[in-house]
User: Fold this.
Amino acid sequence: MGHLMRKAFPIFVLALLGIGFGQADQTPVQGGTLVVVTGHEPQTLDHHLATGVYDAYMTYMVAEGLVTLNKDGTISPALATSWTQPDPQTYDFELRQGVTFHDGTPFNAEAVKFNFDRLFDEATQSPRASSRLGMLESVEVVDEYHVRIRTKYPFAPFLANLGAHGITAIESPAAMEAAGLADYGTQPVGTGPFRLVEWVQGSHLIFEANDDYWDGRPYLDRVEFRIVRDPSTRAVLLRTGEAHFAVEVAPTEFESLDAEPNITAEVVPLENSIFFEMSNIQEPFDDPRVRQAACYAIDAPAIVQSVLLGYGEANPGVLAASSWAHDASIEGYPYDPERARQLLAEAGYPDGFTTVFWHSTGRFPGDVQVAQAIQAFLMQVGIRAELRTGDLTAWAGAMRGEAPDRPGAPMYLRSWGITGDPESQITVLYHSKNWGLSGNYARYRNERVDELLDMADESLDQAQRAEMYKEAERIITEEAPLCKLYDFVRLVAYTDDLHGVIYGTSEYQFFHKAWLDD
Amino acid sequence: MTQYLFRKLLSMVFVLWGVSVMVFSTIHLLPGDAVDYLTSEVANPEFVQRLRNELGLDRPVVVQYGVWLSKALRGDLGRSLTDRRPVAAQVVSRLKNTAQLAVFGLLVAGSLGILAGVISAARPYTAFDYASMFFALVGVSIPSFFLGLLLMLVFAVDLRLLPAAGTGTPLHLVLPSLTLGLVSAGLVARLTRSAMLDVVKQDFVRTARAKGVRDVAVLMRHAFRNSLLPIVTILGLQVGYMLGGSVIVESVFAWPGMGSLVVEAAIRRDYPTVQGALLVYAFLIALVNLLVDTLYVVLDPRVRYG
Assistant:
């Protein structure tokens, strides 16, 4: 852990300051092609059809929303230059003037409205519109450079949501209409710092600098993302100099890459948590003592050390430690197998029980090994968990279950990241309004928690909101619908001639201020 | 012969139909569907229901198959359920990459394997024979991802002679096709050697030698030509391996081929893509088999298909 903090801390501070890595006093160099290697290819670059963070981070190459959410939780202007909130449910945005989409058509209030209309159009079938932006009531054009957006109820995280989700990007209405729903996903047209010029599926995406970008033309001429699934190959490409920036470096490669004279490997903190949940309405996990026993049985710091080689942060809190709503005083369930056995005996399972434990493969690094470690720890207190391994689809289906009252797996490994506001994690996963299929797969229900989370939605004071979230976290931890294991970190590596990459929230990174030495 | 070809082609149609039924039922047996994938984080239940309905995933499997088949018969392989791209275009673009890899892989396997096999058979139980058969055994046994990484470390990282991975230039083709080819070359070499040794013992070879035909001519014109049948068979089988089994090599070398298309589509339960790609695979493999069968006639005048 000391090792991790040593690596992570400077970059975390830089990120807070809004500065990327590299020396800030160096003069940026114009030109060059940046080659990024990533294991994930976006499914679609139609921002309205996006399903994951990998879609969104490519969307943010070509497009942007009204506002930008920074890694420290502050909101800065993007396509909107300023905004006011005349009442808790109304936002008036003043739009940036003189901005054009890559196809030359003007950005204005009509374009903003068009994007939100298309997002919520039934024909679009946006997989995320309702889950991420369900509170949106209306978007009105006031005049060419003013829009008014209303929410159905007071919703404090609204601006953060506008800044954090690719689905809220504003793209060219003309281009969307010309391409149609079926084909727009391969030819997005936004206002962003780069234009998509080529996408060969399974191979690479090439972006070129947008000369007319409102925040100044990017230093780089081109950014090329190469899809390289194998982490060892990504490392090799950095070593040979064929790539400059590698994301999702394997923990086993990290040290040796960092030891290379011209490569720096870095730990980037994320607001992502790894945990397992238990179905609160299925025997034997409907008894909180059984859930607590399962938590006491796990030595999370040991898992971080042995499986993740230390590249993770054991954290008993529901929310990631880097979130402003994280309660650092929560102790959770320190490893105590004796206490676990005792709780099981009290709950009527002195000899333990047999259950089924679902986990994913390749959803996050080490998921299979983490699941196996959990199985081994549970076994020591008498909980015999049979592992069920699923690919992304099978595991997602098993977690969710078929209907609200028909839960799926009794126990499952899960990962979740805060996208923007803590609401996007704690409320989505543990508010009873999302009971069943909409995120609260553990079927957890607590009236006080619901009340706190609702109040936090409505309060506009961040300090107050943090207190509400912290109280909710304490109750949830006590009742243990989940056993929190650790916060997930991103491992990246880059060649030393690259400077100025900015890490955003989630797994986003921005290259419009990045440059390469000659 | 024409009649034979006609019959073969007709049976190919049934094979393809059988494959399509099997693939369709198998992928539907996998838990979850494309909607689970698309909404894998969160979605409201009504939306999930509506999407499933829109994509036709709530209909009985037999009906879904019927819809797919009637379109496929008209040459329409449909669109991907998850990214909405046309399946046919995707398969074609991936197939080009896979075909390149397979052709060059086959070239490596064929030339290296046959050469080593022939020389070993000509000079059996010599140092060359033992050495080449040892390497052939290594080639057959070594996992392709390991061989790939090894070649990458030597030629890209240490010697800086070749690009490590990806596509773009003809040089990018060298390491992946070498990896794919070397594994097959081992098999081809061992088979060529044993086929040759069988033939070399036969009377007509002794007769040729007795007539005073030069050694090389005996070997190539008499012995080798007569061992070609099993060699062609194994090369035909290797084409199948290279088309289908190349997924690991594709992954190591970031090569955008058919293998990775199918694997990723299967993870997303993107039925039309899996179905379309596997149908094309089946067609190609059936075609190669037909080609091998036809080559028998050319290579061995005794073979007659009535």
Q: What stands out?
A: The mean pLDDT of chain B is 88. The two ends of chain B are 7 Å apart (CA to CA). The CA atoms of residues 245 and 263 of chain B lie 11 Å apart. Chain B touches chain A through 52 residues (CB under 8 Å).
